UniProtKB/TrEMBL annotation:
It comes from the Bacteria. Belongs to the UPF0161 family. Keywords: Cell membrane, Membrane. NCBIfam families: membrane protein insertion efficiency factor YidD. Its main location: membrane. The gene is yidD. This is Putative membrane protein insertion efficiency factor. InterPro entries: Membr_insert_effic_factor_YidD. The lineage of its organism: Bacteria, Pseudomonadati, Spirochaetota, Spirochaetia, Leptospirales.
């Protein structure tokens, strides 16, 4: 796996801080599995920054009392199939 970009690493540090210092102070639990912070962490580890930011933001916006929650894993971006076909 490639090393996350610098901006992704910044967000990974922020997520780590949130999970260690802020999350324990909040009541309740995330409605999804994996938790929203675990989802964001994985997204920033494996996806390009704009995609990780969009998916994480959308996930956090769905975590509200009107959404029951469910299993929602991070889906990696599909590879460019044309380059795979040209270079088997």
């Amino acid at each position: 796996m490639a090393e996350p970009a610098l901006i992704n690493r910044f967000f990974l540090l922020f997520i780590g801080f949130y999970r260690a210092a802020i999350s324990p102070l909040l009541p309740g639990r995330c409605r999804f599995y994996p938790s929203c912070s675990a989802y964001a962490k994985e997204a920033f580890e494996i996806l390009p920054f704009p995609v990780a930011l969009a998916k994480s933001t959308y996930r956090i916006l769905r975590c509200n009392p009107f959404n029951e929650g469910y299993f929602d894993p991070v889906i990696p971006e599909a590879k460019d199939r044309t380059s795979e076909q040209e270079n088997p």
